[in-house]
Structure prediction request, 322 residues.
Amino acid sequence: MNKLLDNGENVPVANALPSSYRALLVDEPSPGLFRRRVIERPLSDLPDHEVLVRVHYSSLNYKDALSANGNRGVTRRYPHTPGIDAAGVVAASRTPEFAPGDEVLVSCYDLGMNTPGGFGQYIRVPAAWVMPKPKGLGLREAMIYGTAGFTAAQCLARLVDFPVPPTAGKILVTGASGGVGSIAVALLARLGYEVAAVTGKPEQADFLRELGAQRILSREEALDTSERAAQGPLGRSARHCGRPAPGHRHQIVPLQRSGYLLRQCRLARSAFECLSLHPQGRNPDRNRQRRVSDGPAPGYLDPAGRPLAATRPGTAGHRNFP
Prediction:
């Protein structure tokens, strides 16, 4: 699960704004050496966008760890403040969509990657990135689910939309003990799916069973590197999109383990690649990854119920799903 970072909720959001704020700053004092410090920064250092948010909570994601350790694939420029999501209260706004005191969330887009993120007491972001906090959730609860929960929900939505009902067969969830995987296991089980969970951490087996997994598989059990398996979708296996196991060029998941494979969910060059469905030889035309090459599938909504914009990486509207 995500770890929760608490900036405290008992902070006034009145008209008077501070001149500075505290934040985790990652800098590069010498080439290849990255340093992490909590320091006081001028509020004026934040980018000039429409909505200033006093951050109450943020969750710790794997992408944040990459950014904090100098991964240029996540963060191009340093010094930088990580934190790819945030829940808080609007402190100032230059748009009628949001007013001081509004409880809001910011997730995905460029937050915490190349825009100062949620590991600071304040963020200033474009209005298009901000969504009202869903009713029924507190700010802390929203970040308990965080980006990982949003990603898992997107995966499950694609599974339901395909459609794959609970009666269709087992669902294999890889990386099941991670943030996205564990929430996916819980959501699937709650909706009545039979879940087979793959994990490289045997000590997490009881935890996954508590979430609803009916079968626990090791990575080795979920691999099939035989020549027959390499035949691909027309055989009885599906190539897995994750990293290969040591010594293996590819990861192959045998379909006799599960009828359907729930893959990672991410936005790659404006194309959702949320899952691969391989129905064990039935209807070969469906033995392919569902992909929307020019943007999200019609009807796809963000947590605020707004359609996801089909935008290109690096633009203001780009959503960077992990």
Observations:
- The CA atoms of residues 2 and 68 lie 16 Å apart.
- Residues 8-14, 228-303, 308-322 have pLDDT under 50 and may be disordered.
- The chain has two domains: 3-141, 147-286.
